[in-house]
């Protein structure tokens, strides 16, 4: 049984939202080979427009940013046109779209990218992760360390792709600084062993993320810019140290983000409630919190505890296009089919039944 707190309206940046639910970003591997959204993408997001704030799947800001095959970009004119169709569909059904800007960094493979080049990263250290490619499962290779003089160009890719998202009709963007990808790699000591101003100290390891956030906010407006973090999440082979080290890194990062007055902070939370509480105390705008493994009765727990303003939904929303209605009426939920999460096509993507069709 969901609590009344979920159904209170909330303003996030420029958006007036009807409730506290949102669509969490989820990679679905349904893009076309040229990085344009796939044929069913507009339908997929339209079906979930009642969630109010829809955060898209990870979308690469450049060819170098692609990690997985069949993922979309937002850096060519064709990709902008493809996302315009998605944004229009979401708006027609009353929702709002933020496109998540995701540079995969070292979590990539040459077989998955259009140029087949070596991945880039903060340091030439392999993630040693299995990754699916068109030829099967491979190991992520050793990335090429970004030269100091290249970093400004990567920051500009984020700025330009944010502008492209707005040109496509999106309501804003989410900067992906979480889940083992490039920005998170710069934060993690075992992936970032640089000796320039982007490595070493807490302040230096945060610099890249902060400069991207500043550039994007300057380009499209802070009230159209969100950011996602995942403190201590070990995805992608990252290690961020003990609880004290993680708290020091992320309290510094979030504290430096505060003056930007971004639309929201999105925390993929592993369970350090003391750290989350400190974010709540310092963060001036909306705080989104998602945890692995929540059941439906726990969706509003962080909101009720005063630790969050919104509760993004992942698999509940993936398997239930009408999840808002189902939660509001305490109706049963469809289960997500793991076998079709990343298989392409309509099956397991746009064919989950609504209550009206059940």
From TrEMBL:
GO terms for cellular component: cytosol. Its cofactor is FMN. The keyword Oxidoreductase applies. CDD domains: OYE_like_FMN. Belongs to the NADH:flavin oxidoreductase/NADH oxidase family. Signal peptide: none annotated. This is Alkene reductase. PANTHER family: NADH OXIDOREDUCTASE-RELATED (PTHR22893), NADPH DEHYDROGENASE 2-RELATED (PTHR22893:SF91). It holds the Pfam family Oxidored_FMN. SUPFAM superfamilies: FMN-linked oxidoreductases. Keywords: Oxidoreductase. InterPro entries: Aldolase_TIM, OxRdtase_FMN_N, Oye-like. One of its GO terms (molecular function) is FMN binding. Residues 6-333 form the NADH:flavin oxidoreductase/NADH oxidase N-terminal domain.
């Amino acid at each position: 049984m969901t609590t009344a707190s979920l159904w209170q309206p909330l303003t996030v940046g420029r958006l007036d939202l009807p409730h506290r639910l949102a669509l969490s970003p989820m990679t679905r591997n349904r893009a076309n080979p040229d990085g344009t959204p796939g044929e069913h993408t507009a339908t997929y997001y339209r079906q979930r427009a009642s969630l109010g704030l829809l955060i898209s799947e990870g979308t690469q800001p450049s060819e170098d940013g692609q990690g997985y095959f069949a993922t979309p970009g937002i850096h060519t004119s064709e990709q902008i046109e493809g996302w315009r169709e998605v944004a229009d569909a979401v708006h027609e059904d009353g929702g709002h779209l933020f496109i998540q800007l995701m540079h995969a960094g070292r979590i990539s493979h040459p077989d998955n990218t259009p140029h087949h080049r070596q991945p880039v990263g903060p340091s030439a250290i392999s993630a040693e992760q299995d990754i699916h490619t068109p030829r099967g499962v491979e190991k992520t290779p050793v990335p090429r360390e970004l030269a100091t003089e290249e970093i400004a160009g990567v920051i500009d890719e984020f700025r330009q792709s944010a502008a492209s998202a707005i040109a496509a009709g999106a309501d804003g963007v989410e900067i992906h600084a979480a889940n083992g990808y490039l920005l998170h790699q710069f934060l993690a000591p075992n992936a970032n062993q640089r000796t320039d101003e982007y490595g070493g100290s807490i302040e230096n390891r945060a610099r890249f993320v902060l400069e991207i956030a500043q550039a994007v906010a300057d380009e499209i407006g802070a009230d159209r810019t969100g950011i996602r973090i995942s403190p201590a999440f070990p995805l992608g082979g990252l290690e961020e140290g003990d609880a004290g080290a993680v708290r020091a890194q992320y309290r510094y990062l979030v504290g430096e983000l505060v003056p930007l007055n971004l639309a929201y902070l999105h925390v993929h939370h592993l369970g350090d409630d003391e750290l989350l509480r400190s974010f709540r105390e310092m963060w001036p705008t909306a705080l989104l919190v998602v945890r692995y493994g929540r059941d439906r009765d726990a969706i509003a727990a962080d909101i009720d505890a005063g630790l969050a303003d919104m509760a993004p939904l992942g698999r509940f929303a993936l398997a239930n296009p009408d999840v808002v209605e189902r939660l509001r009426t305490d109706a049963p939920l469809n289960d997500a089919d793991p076998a079709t999460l990343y298989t392409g096509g309509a099956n397991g993507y746009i064919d989950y039944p609504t209550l009206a069709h059940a």
